[in-house]
Amino acid sequence: MGSQNQIKSKLLEMEGGKFQRLCDDWLYRKGLENINPIGMMKTTDRVVKGTPDCLFMQEDGTYIFSEYTVQQERLAKKLEDDIGKCFDEVKTGIPIEKISGIIICYLGKLTTKEINSLRSICYDRGIMLTLNGLDSISLSIKNSYPVLSETYLGLPLDTGQLLSVEDFIDRYGKSNFTTSIDNELLFCDDLLSSATKTLETENFLLVSGAAGLGKTLFSVTLAKKFQRENSNLIVICLFDKGADLIRDITAMFSEPGDYLIFVDDANRLDNRLDYLLHYLNENDEYRTFRIIATVRDYARTSVIEKVNKYTELHEQVMVPLTDDQIKELSETIFGIKNGEYQKRIQEVSCGNPRLAVMASKVEH
Fold first, then answer.
1. Measured distance CA(343)–CA(277) in Å, rounded
2. d(CA 158, CA 250)
């Protein structure tokens, strides 16, 4: 596992385009979601000339510019020039009064005098300047966004088993043994509403059913829905690699917060599940915990017995789809309207949505 100094060393080795990609991802995860990386070519790490490197549109109609640089020498002069270009309406097409902030990410060193001078340039125009140097970026990656270290620096900070919903969906889809879960969840609106109400008052929901009935897709869709309705909720998904979890869990859940943990195939965790379940009995006014877990039919009883030792269990059972639902799935997701193809998919899937998706991909 990497340390902050290792992260700093890796950052200092980065070339400009890769550093911009990392910073865009970092700022996105910090809440600047309406991102327009106009300083990058669309599908490469190559930069294009122009200012700003990235543009963030705000809900109030203003804009935040961001500038990134790996330059070490004459850094203050470089940043002063970049800020000046941000104020050039001819170059940007945006009036100064529409700029609410400028964010700069850099890897070189600035003196306190240089920092004060740069901030004064912006403050004199009523614009907030945020400077993110090597130490602040590396600390944030280490403590809050360790997945960025593995993705951009090739330096794993943990076992890579605790992920955001988006990272879990991406990682899940790369497995050769599963179908992707980035498609739309159909026919489950009532089940989602019921499960959401359960999570509002209870701290454990078990999603059970036979293989391929959509337990994982249902659970991640539920987690995203619950997060949208609870803006302060922190959703963590467990992507099991069979490695020890204690260090990862202790680090991840040490901070205050309202946590929702998703555990896929809970029975595979064995004694590691007990460690997670302990958190449900935490008597901490600064932290709350809920768990969504999936389990297949054959392992349902053992998981229920284990969970009941810690908390009251609530269950959502997934059932096979009807032939009409399989037909609608193939039409809605894959655009298959040929009656013979639809009948073949219905016969192959026998109500199993995973098999229906796989058959639809073959027929599509």
1. 44
2. 11
